[in-house]
Amino acid sequence: MKDLGEAKKVLGMEIERDRKGGKVSLTQKWYLKRVLKKFNINSDTTSVSTPLASHFKLKSATSLTSIEEREYMTHIPYASVISSLMYAIVCTRSDLSQVSQC
Questions:
Q1: Is the pLDDT of residue 85 over 80?
Q2: Counting beta carbons within 10 angstroms of the beta carbon of residue 8, is it exposed (0 to 12), middle (13 to 18) or buried (19 or more)?
Q3: C-alpha 17, offset from chain centre
Q4: Phi-psi bin for 76: left (phi > 0), alpha (psi -120 to 50), beta?
Q5: pTM, two decimal places
Q6: What sign for the dihedral angle of Cα 15, 18, 24, 29?
Q7: pLDDT digit string (tens) for 34-50?
Q8: 92: exposed, middle or buried (C-beta count within 10 Å: 0-12, 13-18, 19+)?
Protein backbone atom coordinates (compact mmCIF):
# COMPACT_ATOMS: atom_id res chain seq x y z
CA MET A 1 0.00 0.00 0.00
CA LYS A 2 1.26 3.45 -0.87
CA ASP A 3 0.25 6.84 0.52
CA LEU A 4 -0.75 9.02 -2.43
CA GLY A 5 -1.40 12.09 -0.29
CA GLU A 6 -4.64 14.01 -0.07
CA ALA A 7 -7.41 13.05 -2.46
CA LYS A 8 -8.05 15.77 -5.03
CA LYS A 9 -10.69 14.02 -7.09
CA VAL A 10 -13.09 11.14 -6.40
CA LEU A 11 -15.61 9.77 -8.93
CA GLY A 12 -15.26 12.90 -11.07
CA MET A 13 -15.90 15.25 -8.14
CA GLU A 14 -13.16 17.65 -7.12
CA ILE A 15 -12.47 17.97 -3.41
CA GLU A 16 -11.61 21.43 -2.10
CA ARG A 17 -10.36 21.88 1.45
CA ASP A 18 -10.21 25.02 3.56
CA ARG A 19 -8.15 23.92 6.52
CA LYS A 20 -8.24 27.32 8.23
CA GLY A 21 -12.00 27.54 7.95
CA GLY A 22 -12.46 23.83 8.67
CA LYS A 23 -14.50 23.24 5.52
CA VAL A 24 -14.48 20.58 2.84
CA SER A 25 -16.50 21.04 -0.34
CA LEU A 26 -17.23 18.96 -3.41
CA THR A 27 -17.48 20.49 -6.87
CA GLN A 28 -18.23 19.18 -10.32
CA LYS A 29 -16.93 22.09 -12.37
CA TRP A 30 -15.53 19.80 -15.08
CA TYR A 31 -18.81 17.88 -15.41
CA LEU A 32 -20.92 21.04 -15.48
CA LYS A 33 -18.66 22.65 -18.10
CA ARG A 34 -19.18 19.53 -20.24
CA VAL A 35 -22.97 19.78 -19.78
CA LEU A 36 -22.92 23.45 -20.78
CA LYS A 37 -20.90 22.66 -23.88
CA LYS A 38 -23.23 19.77 -24.81
CA PHE A 39 -26.26 22.07 -24.78
CA ASN A 40 -24.45 24.98 -26.51
CA ILE A 41 -24.44 27.26 -23.49
CA ASN A 42 -21.29 29.37 -23.66
CA SER A 43 -19.88 32.60 -22.25
CA ASP A 44 -22.01 34.60 -24.72
CA THR A 45 -25.17 33.21 -23.14
CA THR A 46 -26.78 35.47 -20.58
CA SER A 47 -28.23 34.00 -17.43
CA VAL A 48 -31.41 35.28 -15.88
CA SER A 49 -33.07 34.55 -12.59
CA THR A 50 -36.60 33.25 -12.98
CA PRO A 51 -37.91 32.42 -9.53
CA LEU A 52 -41.27 30.71 -9.37
CA ALA A 53 -43.65 32.39 -6.97
CA SER A 54 -44.87 30.13 -4.17
CA HIS A 55 -48.52 30.76 -5.05
CA PHE A 56 -48.01 29.76 -8.71
CA LYS A 57 -49.46 26.34 -9.57
CA LEU A 58 -48.72 24.42 -12.77
CA LYS A 59 -51.79 23.00 -14.49
CA SER A 60 -52.31 20.79 -17.51
CA ALA A 61 -54.53 23.51 -18.97
CA THR A 62 -51.46 25.72 -19.42
CA SER A 63 -49.53 23.06 -21.33
CA LEU A 64 -48.72 23.14 -25.03
CA THR A 65 -51.86 23.43 -27.10
CA SER A 66 -50.98 24.13 -30.71
CA ILE A 67 -49.27 21.70 -33.07
CA GLU A 68 -46.56 24.29 -33.74
CA GLU A 69 -45.73 24.54 -30.02
CA ARG A 70 -45.53 20.76 -29.70
CA GLU A 71 -43.31 20.48 -32.79
CA TYR A 72 -40.97 23.20 -31.50
CA MET A 73 -40.62 21.49 -28.09
CA THR A 74 -39.71 18.13 -29.66
CA HIS A 75 -36.38 19.67 -30.68
CA ILE A 76 -35.54 20.91 -27.16
CA PRO A 77 -33.70 18.30 -25.05
CA TYR A 78 -35.47 19.38 -21.86
CA ALA A 79 -35.44 15.96 -20.16
CA SER A 80 -31.75 15.49 -20.90
CA VAL A 81 -30.85 18.91 -19.47
CA ILE A 82 -32.86 18.28 -16.31
CA SER A 83 -31.38 14.82 -15.75
CA SER A 84 -27.84 16.19 -16.22
CA LEU A 85 -28.47 18.89 -13.65
CA MET A 86 -30.16 16.45 -11.25
CA TYR A 87 -27.07 14.24 -11.38
CA ALA A 88 -24.90 17.17 -10.32
CA ILE A 89 -27.33 18.15 -7.56
CA VAL A 90 -27.65 14.65 -6.11
CA CYS A 91 -23.91 13.98 -6.18
CA THR A 92 -22.59 17.29 -4.84
CA ARG A 93 -25.50 19.17 -3.29
CA SER A 94 -27.71 16.57 -1.69
CA ASP A 95 -29.17 19.33 0.51
CA LEU A 96 -30.72 20.83 -2.66
CA SER A 97 -32.21 17.54 -3.79
CA GLN A 98 -34.13 17.23 -0.50
CA VAL A 99 -35.85 20.62 -0.44
CA SER A 100 -38.91 20.45 1.79
CA GLN A 101 -42.23 21.98 0.94
CA CYS A 102 -43.48 24.72 3.25
A1: yes
A2: exposed
A3: 22
A4: beta
A5: 0.55
A6: negative
A7: 888 888 888 777 777 77
A8: buried
